[in-house]
Write a structure and sequence with these properties.
The chain starts with a helix and ends in a 28-residue tail after the last strand. Strands 1, 2, 5, 6, 8, 9, 11, 12, 13, 14 and 15 form an eleven-stranded mixed β-sheet that branches. A three-stranded mixed β-sheet has the order 4-3-7, with no helix packed on it. The chain is of the alpha/beta class and about 375 residues long.
C-alpha cells in the first residue's frame, strides 16, 4: 500500500483525477458528417456500426470511479494478440477440434476431433509455438467468411501447417456491419476483433486512434469479484471460470467493486494529458485514445503485467510494425524504460466509467469526439 502511494504521488497530475464520482461536461462539439456516405469507413480496417461499443466515444455525462490499478512488477508492458484474418477470397481450410486449451503440457497443433468449421485463411499464415507470443496465448481468431459479412470467431486457435488448423471453442457469428460486441475473448465473452489496435494504427503518420481499445489486467490484484456480480459487468457476459478463487486475492490498493471484467476504463475528461509528461509519442497517442474512447477490460493477464490487445494478421503483425516505426518493442521487460514508465503512468490514472451501459454507451451525453463515419455500403463483389 505504501509503495503504491509513493508511486502515484510522483505523477504530477494524479490529484487532477482523484474525484472518483465526478461528472465532466467538456465534451467536444461534433464535426459535420461526411458529405458522401458512400465514401465511408472501410469495414475491413474498422468494422461495426459507428454506435458499436468499439467505436463509441466517451460522453460528457460519464461518471468516473478510480480503478486504483496496482503497478505491474513482472514486465514493463505486454500485448495480447488477436488473430484477424480479413481475406474472404482465399481458399477455405478446415479447422479441427483440439482440446489442449491452456495446458502447457499439451499440444495445440494436434487434431483431436472433427471439423469445427472451414474458413478462408492463407496457407502462409502460421500460428504455432514457434511464432506465437508466450507459452499459451489467448489466441482468439476472427476470420471474415466468403460472404464478406460474417465474422466467425474461435479460441485458442493454432495453425501449425499450411492446409489445416485447430481450435477448441467456437463463438456466435458476427456481422461486420453490426454491433460486433461479442466473440472469442474467453475471459469476458467479448470480441476478438473490435477494440484491437490494428497494424495500420499507432504509427508516426496514422494520427489518433478513433475507437475504444481492449486491455487485460492481473485478476488477482485488479479485477473485483463477489457472489452477486460474479466478477463481471456489461458488456461482458462472463468472467473467468476461476474468478471466484482468483480475482482480488492479492489486492493491496483500496477495493473498487466497479472494476470487474467488461469494465470500460478511461482517463477522465478533467485531466490534462500533457501534465503526465509522457516521454514517448506512442504513449501520448494511447493516452488520448483512452481519454476519448476508453478501453474495455476483456481478459486476465494471469501475472503482474499490463496488456493491450493488438492485431496479428497474415500480412502484418502489429508488434513487428511497432518496433519498425518507433525503434523499440511494445513488449518491454524492464519497468524502467521511458515506454514502460509512460504506460505505468497511464494505467495508474485509469478510471471505470461506471454508468457505461447498453442505453448509455460511454456514459451518455455529448460525445468527446465525433462519431466515426458510417461504413461503406455493403458490396459482395
Amino acid at each position: 500500500m505504501k509503495k503504491n502511494i509513493l508511486f502515484i504521488c510522483i505523477l504530477p497530475l494524479y490529484l487532477c483525477c482523484c474525484n472518483p464520482s465526478e461528472k465532466d461536461n467538456n465534451g467536444k462539439e461534433p464535426d459535420e458528417e461526411i458529405d458522401n456516405p458512400s465514401e465511408g469507413r472501410d469495414p475491413l480496417l474498422q468494422p461495426f456500426s459507428e454506435k458499436s461499443i468499439w467505436n463509441m466515444p466517451i460522453g460528457s455525462d460519464a461518471v468516473y470511479v478510480h480503478a486504483h490499478i496496482e503497478p505491474a512488477t513482472s514486465m514493463g508492458m505486454t500485448l495480447d494478440e488477436d488473430y484477424i484474418v480479413m481475406a474472404p477470397d482465399e481458399e477455405p481450410i478446415d479447422i479441427y477440434e483440439n482440446r489442449a486449451g491452456w495446458d502447457r503440457n499439451k499440444d495445440r497443433c494436434v487434431k483431436e476431433g472433427g471439423v469445427l468449421f472451414s474458413a478462408p485463411i492463407p496457407t502462409s499464415f502460421i500460428v504455432s509455438k514457434e511464432t506465437w507470443d508466450g507459452l499459451t496465448p489467448n489466441a482468439g481468431l476472427a476470420v471474415l467468411m466468403p460472404d464478406k459479412r460474417t465474422i466467425k470467431q474461435t479460441q485458442p486457435f493454432a495453425k501449425c501447417g499450411t492446409n489445416e488448423a485447430t481450435s477448441q471453442y467456437v463463438f456466435a457469428d458476427t456481422d461486420i456491419y453490426g454491433q460486433g460486441v461479442y466473440g472469442a475473448h474467453g475471459g469476458s465473452g467479448l470480441s476478438a476483433i473490435g477494440g484491437a489496435i490494428r497494424t495500420h494504427e499507432l504509427t508516426p503518420t496514422s494520427g489518433p486512434i478513433k475507437h475504444a481499445l481492449k486491455i487485460n489486467l492481473f485478476g488477482r490484484q485488479n479485477i473485483y469479484y463477489d457472489n452477486k456480480t460474479k466478477g463481471y459487468r456489461w458488456p461482458a457476459t462472463k468472467a473467468d471460470s476461476y474468478a471466484h478463487e482468483n480475482y482480488y486475492k492479492d489486492r493491496s490498493n483500496p477495493v473498487v467493486p466497479e472494476c470487474r471484467m467488461g469494465a470500460l476504463l478511461a482517463i477522465p475528461a478533467s485531466m490534462n494529458i500533457q501534465d503526465l509528461q509522457l516521454e514517448t509519442e506512442p504513449a501520448r497517442i494511447i493516452a488520448q485514445a483512452l481519454q476519448d474512447y476508453g478501453a474495455y477490460l476483456v481478459d486476465d493477464t494471469g501475472w503482474s503485467v499490463y496488456a493491450i490487445v493488438t492485431e496479428w494478421s497474415p500480412n502484418l503483425r502489429f508488434a513487428d510494425e511497432f518496433k519498425k516505426n518507433w525503434g523499440f518493442s511494445f513488449s518491454e521487460g524492464s519497468v524502467d524504460t521511458p515506454w514502460s514508465k509512460d504506460m505505468a503512468k497511464i494505467f495508474a490514472c485509469l478510471h471505470v466509467v461506471d454508468n457505461n451501459s447498453e442505453t448509455s454507451v460511454g456514459g451518455g451525453g455529448q460525445t468527446r469526439v465525433p462519431l466515426s463515419d458510417p461504413l461503406k455500403p455493403f458490396s459482395p463483389e
